[in-house]
């Protein structure tokens, strides 16, 4: 008998200006707060965070810069900092890697974490998972955490000022919720939990299809609009809930290809969601979906500034690089989730088909 453990964030604040509630949220969790995240993310929110904490008379202990890789060494280092500084509430900002590391470190020393995503690249802000890497940036595993964030603050005004590529990455990762879940879920085994995960993932797709172009415009313009709010809800809430409801078991060939790309030094640095977004197109080809369906997916990816050709990912990718990427993707648990056996030739021809059709919409 398998027990599902559903770990939700305790509170979610979303919408424009949500950061104005951060201080009160932190004040309920502890009296000594520390901000952790990437250098740029800290610079863009630190004044607002410090002001929020001051209003609630919570001591601000300053910030700690995340070193860029969510590896066990960095998780341990941050946990040590939190323990020795007597931190009572952690405010984590930045992208998925920074949030994952702070969440894992918070769990390690039993300190509540409030996530304040600085970019919309993944749904990491709401999940109780950490994507763990080796120190050199290669993917290691997906680590379940015993608790989720104590609070999540998704501020559309803040996220409207982040670079477009991160919104595109979030859209790519969120579209994967639908494409992958549809590919791997067994409708004959439908349960309520699986149904909720599937419905949320389909809602993600529908919202993105309607609002992606408007959301990208908002970010290029630097001003939040309704389309951006809808897409952010898809990225953080509905995709996050798919993740929670499916216990993280919602990944397939798109994420397998992403993991493959982390084995190649030329593509390792590309944001997770952009590679997953490209992987989605290969997944549809692996499923032998029609040209019409693939062309529609390619057009949506293009409208969302997601790579649709290998040359958009990196220039000078050789056949040998591609072999390393495909070989690695075939060894991942995500690829094993696919309902059919997948060979090297299957993936190679899926990539080729995406290249061919992608060229048509250029
Ligand atoms: Zn992902």
Automatic annotation (TrEMBL):
<dbReference type="Pfam" id="PF00465">
    <property type="entry name" value="Fe-ADH"/>
</dbReference>
<feature type="domain" description="Alcohol dehydrogenase iron-type/glycerol dehydrogenase GldA">
    <location>
        <begin position="9"/>
        <end position="155"/>
    </location>
</feature>
<protein>
    <submittedName>
        <fullName>Iron-containing alcohol dehydrogenase family protein</fullName>
    </submittedName>
</protein>
<dbReference type="InterPro" id="IPR001670">
    <property type="entry name" value="ADH_Fe/GldA"/>
</dbReference>
<dbReference type="InterPro" id="IPR016205">
    <property type="entry name" value="Glycerol_DH"/>
</dbReference>
<keyword id="KW-0479">Metal-binding</keyword>
<keyword id="KW-0560">Oxidoreductase</keyword>
């Amino acid at each position: 008998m398998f027990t599902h453990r559903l770990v939700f964030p305790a509170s979610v604040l979303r919408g424009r200006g949500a950061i104005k509630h951060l201080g009160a949220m932190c004040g309920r969790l502890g009296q000594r707060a520390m901000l952790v995240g990437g250098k740029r993310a800290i610079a863009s929110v630190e004044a607002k965070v410090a002001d929020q904490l001051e209003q609630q008379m919570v001591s601000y202990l300053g910030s700690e810069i995340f070193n860029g890789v969510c590896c066990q060494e960095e998780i341990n280092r941050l946990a040590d900092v939190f323990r020795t500084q007597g931190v009572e509430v952690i405010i984590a900002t930045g992208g998925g890697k920074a949030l994952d590391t702070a969440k894992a470190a918070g769990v390690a020393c039993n300190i509540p974490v409030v996530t304040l995503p600085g970019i919309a690249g993944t749904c990491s802000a709401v999940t109780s998972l950490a994507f763990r890497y080796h120190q050199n940036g290669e993917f290691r595993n997906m680590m379940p955490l015993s608790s989720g964030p104590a609070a999540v603050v998704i501020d559309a005004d803040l996220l409207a000022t982040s670079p477009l590529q991160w919104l595109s990455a979030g859209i790519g990762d969120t579209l994967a919720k639908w494409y992958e879940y549809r590919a791997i879920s067994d409708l004959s085994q439908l349960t309520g939990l699986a149904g909720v995960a599937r419905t949320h993932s389909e809602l993600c797709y529908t919202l993105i299809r309607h609002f992606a172009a408007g959301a990208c415009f908002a970010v290029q313009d630097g001003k939040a609009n309704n389309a951006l709010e809808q897409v952010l809800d898809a990225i953080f809430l509905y995709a996050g809930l798919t993740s929670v409801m499916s216990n993280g078991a919602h990944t397939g060939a798109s994420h397998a290809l992403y993991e493959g790309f982390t084995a190649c030094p030329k593509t390792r640095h590309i944001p997770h969601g952009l590679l997953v977004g490209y992987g989605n197109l290969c997944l549809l080809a692996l499923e032998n979906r029609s040209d019409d369906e693939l062309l529609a997916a390619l057009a949506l990816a293009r409208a969302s500034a997601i790579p649709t050709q290998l040359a958009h990912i990196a220039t000078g990718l050789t056949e040998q690089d591609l072999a390393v990427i495909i070989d690695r993707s075939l060894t991942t648990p995500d690829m094993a989730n696919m309902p059919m056996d997948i060979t090297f030739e299957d993936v190679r021809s899926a990539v080729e088909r995406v290249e061919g059709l992608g060229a048509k919409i250029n």
